[in-house]
Design brief:
Blueprint (H helix, E strand, L loop, with lengths): L1 H25 L1 H5 L13 E5 L5 E3 L2 E3 L1 H13 L6 E5 L8 H14 L2 E6 L2 E5 L17
Parallel strand pairs: 1-4, 4-5
Antiparallel strand pairs: 1-2, 2-3, 5-6
Length: 142
């Protein structure tokens, strides 16, 4: 009799799953893809802040874009590259396009997952090497 109960439970579970999937398929958001929700980390391995004249703040130190690239090269040599990096505006300046381009270049070169706070919204920076440049090693900021 226990085999019969197990078979009935399995049939009921399969029926419930089928009904759930059927109803989910009728929902417009499911068919259309629904809203995109990003998995945002609670902690970043590194936080950069924008500063005036295209410079960056890192742990209170003011760095030019070239200095920041040098710092990433040093971290790469030490095998201590960050996996997630946040670029956010400082109290002095918002994130400028030139800073975002440098950030994207660093992301491509050093392979971290980059996030930027732009206009009050957190954005995943999805930088990729342009196909014409794929034969050459990318340099940060170019």
């Amino acid at each position: 009799m226990s085999h019969r109960k197990t078979a009935i439970r399995a049939a009921l579970a399969a029926g419930a799953l089928s009904v759930t999937l059927l109803l989910a398929g009728c929902n417009g958001n499911v068919r259309a893809g629904g809203p995109v929700v990003a998995n945002v980390p609670q902690h970043y391995d590194m936080v950069l802040e924008s500063y005036k004249n295209g410079q960056f703040l890192l742990d209170g130190a003011l760095l030019s874009p070239e200095d920041l690239a040098s710092h990433f090269r040093y971290l790469d040599e030490q095998k201590k590259l960050p996996k997630t990096v946040l670029l956010k505006p400082s109290s002095e300046s918002g994130v400028k396009d030139t800073q975002l381009r440098w950030f994207a270049g660093l992301q491509v070169t050093f392979g971290f997952k980059g996030y930027a706070e732009l206009g009050g919204k957190l954005t995943l920076v999805n930088a990729r090497v342009h196909t014409a440049d794929a034969k050459h090693k990318p340099e940060a900021g170019h």
